[in-house]
Amino acid sequence: MTTQQQEQEKRYDPQRDSTLRFVTRQDDITLDDDPNTLRAEMSCGHAVTPQSLTAWCRSLLDQGQHRFYCPALKEGTTQKCEAEWTYQEVRKLALLNTQEQQYFEETLAALAAAEYCEFKSCPGCSTCVEREDLCNLCVHCTICTAETGRVYEFCWQCLSQWKGPGPRSDRCDNDGCTNKELELLRKCPTTALPQVPGVTECPSIRACPTCGLLLEHDRTGCKNLLCSRCQKEFCFVCLKLTPVCLQTSTHYVPCSDGIAPRQTAIPSWNRHSI
């Protein structure tokens, strides 16, 4: 049986799980209102089917997000619910099968590791090494040091054996060592945001002002983006966090401070301050 067939077979059984609250009103994710379809309420009160919940949460994983949140609108408003669901709740109400659980859990682990830690393969031994100081390019490998009997350090940026001052530095002396992300910010083409009048020459790639993740606007919708890593929303045009930008503007109106220039530095994410 294919994955698609398995998803089509998913059905809630009130007799097997009395801990869920079942309803027949419309699905708050897909808006399907078939009265013959049984739906369950999430912890936030919005109704889903196993299929709609699985598809929505899988799409979040595919976008690089490891937090599951409700996309439904609050009743009588245009504001999204955005209540966060635990994986345990999603697994239960989505009726995830063994194959789906494996995919969800492996992807969640990889995304969480990418968010909370910085890992790269040591060029000497290929072991994954964590960089604890996000401002330091000189990284010490304990395995290579133990095996060779001398201190082994490499550059986090160019992944070559370290040359230059250490043990803490924001630059190395290897030929051609450049920050590829900064180069991308410097050389990316400009773009227009058709939905925002007057925004015709905006850099097409921006670093999130909170965590530094590089993001590209798809040129549809408003000028604000939600960062998939730190979950902070910011204005792609002026680079202010959305609540600050909206104090003097709206989602589809040019920013009062105009278009922020190209970024020349990538913010370091202090995770403990969020």
UniProtKB/TrEMBL annotation:
The keyword Ribonucleoprotein does not apply. Residues 23-259 form the RING-type domain. Keywords: Metal-binding, Repeat, Transferase, Ubl conjugation pathway, Zinc, Zinc-finger. The lineage of its organism: Eukaryota, Metazoa, Chordata, Craniata, Vertebrata. GO terms for molecular function: transferase activity; zinc ion binding. Pfam families: IBR_1. This is RING-type domain-containing protein.
